[in-house]
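Worked example 3 (structure in, sequence out).
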């Protein structure tokens, strides 16, 4: 099922495609992320949600045993790789994950390192035997054909050079989550604050090949760790229907952290695309000619180096404590990613009136919200710059129409006139519009002035 947020895509906005359930059993977390984003309705960004790409929700593969994440633009094998012959032997010897794991280890004379190395070879896929796991199909699967056709139709409404794709997975990985981009030509496009890992050697992956087919800026897979790789490998190889808890643990803390890590990472990607839109950059830059990271020259100077954050360190940040081995800049951007530190303030009528007065007095002098917050704090109010900005946006949306508030606080007529004049420039927060207001706005202004002076 494909849906859009907002329902009617806006051409000049950046676009993020979020896919869940490429491996059917891994869909729950991706669907949680999609539903939460749809409920938030983030402004200024188009989201295209592809929910449960593989309709078999209790299996990793499709009903005809095709791994959809090994089925797009692959190079077929002439013969079955040797590691799959040993896989066939291990599957015949072990009907449970534990029995399979022992049989697989015996195939390599109990050499754990060799068994693990060959397991990675198995995960690359094969396109010869449809009865074995990790079968990538003989041709592009009908599910992909339908999905790509619908995405092509929707993307005709937007600028594809300002679009990216995120394919959400759960299962294999280190602690927390990781971002994987297998296209070396577009890896530099992924925002530097995200935990980008080395390319994962698979054939026919969705993220990279969908992005190439659709002409997007980049495509990434987002993998959330649930169990150690050996457990996942043995369960997927031995069982047609692995336990769902392997891919979506019954741990409310894990689910909550994974959900907000995913939303935070997607928000960073969307902001990276929007930042480029604001600064007039478009199109996918060539990796060899690119002057640097995606944010270089785009108004963001002190982006931290990529660092790995553990679950314990994130918990320390949420408690207000600081990890010892992280710099102040790394902590700053991690807090921004997790949405930590944004405090709310309950505004009284007196504070709202004081904000309007400070806004009228400072904006005329081309001062920004930092000066407005300082002016309010000097008068005995305790507010921050961000709190002033957020509240002013709310007041602007109501067009300063709360007449009882202004009357009760007895704002001087000269200041009131300035407030009403400034109230008709809703496009910019920090500047005074010198253009003449429209007739409709002028009529509304006179109506307010009359009501306020009664």
């Amino acid at each position: 099922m494909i849906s859009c947020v907002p329902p009617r895509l806006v051409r000049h906005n950046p676009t993020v495609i979020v896919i869940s359930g490429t491996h059917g059993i891994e869909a729950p977390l991706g669907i949680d992320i999609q539903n939460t984003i749809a409920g938030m309705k983030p402004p200024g960004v188009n989201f295209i949600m592809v929910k449960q790409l593989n309709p078999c929700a209790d299996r990793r593969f499709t009903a005809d045993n095709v791994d959809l994440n090994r089925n797009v633009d692959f190079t077929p094998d002439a013969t079955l790789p040797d590691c799959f012959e040993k896989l066939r032997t291990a599957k015949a010897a072990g009907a449970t994950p534990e029995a399979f794991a022992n049989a697989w280890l015996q195939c390599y004379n109990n050499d754990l390192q060799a068994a693990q190395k060959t397991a990675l070879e198995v995960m690359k896929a094969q396109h010869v035997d449809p009865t074995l796991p990790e079968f990538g199909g003989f041709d592009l699967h009908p599910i992909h054909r339908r999905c790509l056709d619908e995405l092509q139709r929707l993307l005709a409404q937007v600028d594809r050079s300002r679009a990216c794709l995120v394919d959400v997975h759960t299962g294999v990985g280190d602690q927390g989550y990781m971002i994987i981009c297998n296209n070396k030509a577009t890896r530099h496009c992924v925002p530097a604050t995200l935990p980008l890992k080395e390319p994962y050697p698979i054939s026919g992956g969705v993220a990279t090949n969908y992005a190439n087919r659709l002409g997007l800026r980049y495509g990434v897979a987002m993998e959330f760790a649930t169990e150690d790789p050996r457990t996942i490998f043995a369960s997927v190889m031995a069982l047609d229907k692995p336990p769902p808890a392997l891919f979506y643990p019954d741990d409310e803390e894990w689910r909550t952290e994974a959900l907000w890590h995913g939303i935070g990472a997607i928000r960073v990607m969307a902001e990276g695309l929007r930042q480029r839109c604001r600064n007039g950059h478009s199109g996918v830059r060539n990796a060899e000619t690119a002057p640097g990271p995606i944010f270089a020259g785009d108004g963001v100077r002190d982006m931290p180096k990529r660092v790995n954050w553990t679950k314990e360190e994130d918990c320390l940040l949420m408690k207000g404590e600081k990890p010892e081995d992280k710099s102040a800049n790394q902590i700053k951007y991690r807090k921004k990613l997790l949405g930590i530190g944004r405090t709310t303030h309950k505004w009284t009528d007196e504070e709202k009136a004081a904000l309007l007065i400070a806004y009228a007095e400072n904006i005329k002098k081309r001062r920004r919200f930092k000066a407005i917050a300082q002016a309010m704090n000097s008068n005995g109010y305790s507010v921050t710059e961000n709190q002033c900005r957020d509240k002013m946006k709310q007041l602007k949306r109501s067009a300063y129409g709360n007449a009882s508030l202004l009357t009760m606080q007895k704002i001087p007529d000269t200041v009131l006139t300035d407030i009403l004049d400034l109230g008709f420039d809703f496009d910019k927060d920090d500047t005074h519009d010198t253009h003449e207001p429209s007739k409709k706005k002028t009529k509304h202004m006179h109506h307010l002035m009359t009501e306020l002076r009664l």
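Notes: The two ends are 57 Å apart (CA to CA). The chain has three domains: 1-296, 304-342, 349-452.
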